[in-house]
Amino acid sequence: MEKIIVHGGKRLKGTVHIDGAKNAVLPIQAATILASEGQTVISNVPLLSDVYTMNKVLRFLNIKVDFNESANKITFDASSDVSSEAPFEYVSKMRASIVVMGPLLARLGKARVALPGGCAIGSRPIDLHLKGFEALGAHIEQHDGYVEATAPNGLVGTDIYLDFPSVGATQNIMMAATLAKGKTVIQNAAREPEIVDLANVLNKMGASVIGAGTEQIRIQGVETLHGTDHAVVQDRIEAGTFMIAAAVTKGDVMVDGAIAEHNKPLILKMREMGVSVIEGDDGVRVIGPDKLKPVDVKTLPHPGFPTDMQPQMTILQLCADGSSSMTETVFENRFMHLEELRRMNAQYTISGRTVLMQGPTDFNGAEVAASDLRAAAALVIAGLVASGYTQVRNLQYLDRGYHDFHKKLAGLGAEIKRVNVDEDDAIILNQSLKNHL
Ligand SMILES: CC(=O)N[C@H]1[C@@H](OP(=O)(O)OP(=O)(O)OC[C@H]2O[C@@H](n3ccc(=O)[nH]c3=O)[C@H](O)[C@@H]2O)O[C@H](CO)[C@@H](O)[C@@H]1O
Ligand SMILES: C=C(OP(=O)(O)O)C(=O)O
After folding, report:
1. Cα separations (Å) of 73 from 4, 46, 231, 238, 318?
2. What is the extent of the structural domain holding 424?
3. Binding residues for phosphoenolpyruvate, per the UniProt record (predicted)?
4. pLDDT of residue 34
């Protein structure tokens, strides 16, 4: 079993470099299915387990995938025959595999993809994706845990209104519409920077996508798409996670490569708490104050406060001097990290979708288990300010979205180590933690 062990109390100082965005690269990997001619070369690719899973899905679909890890570059060749089925083995590992459906349907007129199911943070249905495909003329059936979409005569452009600005549905419909006959308009589209990055790649491949980043995206269908080169946008969630780690430890950190514009709600809330955030062309510098002021936060689709920063933000709020609230409106079950934090001395009450937190918290080190990706990051951040030793388990979640998280924190002066221990070793380790750091 792997664990991260943190000895809290160090102020983080120095520069940390941010990788390409997980949530941008995954749909871009899927978009390479659309290129029936030439190769697509994607650079600034983060070395994350989700990226490897998406590569496996694509290889299963008969696409050539060559990952040059030392150069953070993947070359895709989808010029041969592509197959239409994404099996349960991969989709169950990573929900984002569902975004292969739009490109497959566009290119082949059919797609058979395992239904992704929910995860720890919520039920996560795909009804909006499927309604979009149906509006484009696809016939949808569900059998044996798979969803099958067929459009033997091709898709036809239309106006689609999303009941909620779903990121995945916007991406899937946008990709499906690139090869549809005529024009598609997506109303109430998601506006995340990762949508813009995907639209940029599609346009370089020969598509005509206008308005990405606004609530109305217009796509004029074209006959074929071809390969291209593209560098993935920086990860605003990884950047935000380090910004919070810097602030909560009263540190002084340059988050190199962070794009301030993509993290505006977080930056403004951090300033409200008394954190000094200096925006530059090459990154964002964060200086934590001696005392944090309490603040109320509500998650919303972009440009609102991102749900993927919610667990990390609650650590900062718990350290503030007074009571703060967090309301989670995007996912129905994203407070699971708080149960673990209670074991580290966090004081809070949950009422529906809102948690009321009482700070400042004197976090005590404890052994805690992550329930999902951002919960894992939040628990490690709590460990950075806790007295004594914190051990975080279930690192498979962390590896979905952060490459070398512990090494980056160690580079900023944190006392942190990742160890691989069996259960017996763990008992000995608990008795002699100091020798391990
Ligand atoms: C790989 C990736 O990019 N993941 C991100 C993406 O996930 P993802 O694309 O899954 O998130 P969505 O924006 O689709 O989901 C937001 C909400 O809409 C609901 N919903 C969504 C689709 C649908 O058909 N029906 C429906 O009800 C979901 O259950 C959820 O409550 O956006 C989320 C919201 O910013 C982020 O937390 C994830 O990190
Ligand atoms: C929820 C997340 O990702 P996914 O949609 O891939 O589960 C996340 O990145 O925090």
Report:
1. 28, 9, 9, 19, 39
2. 2-19+234-436
3. 22-23
4. 98
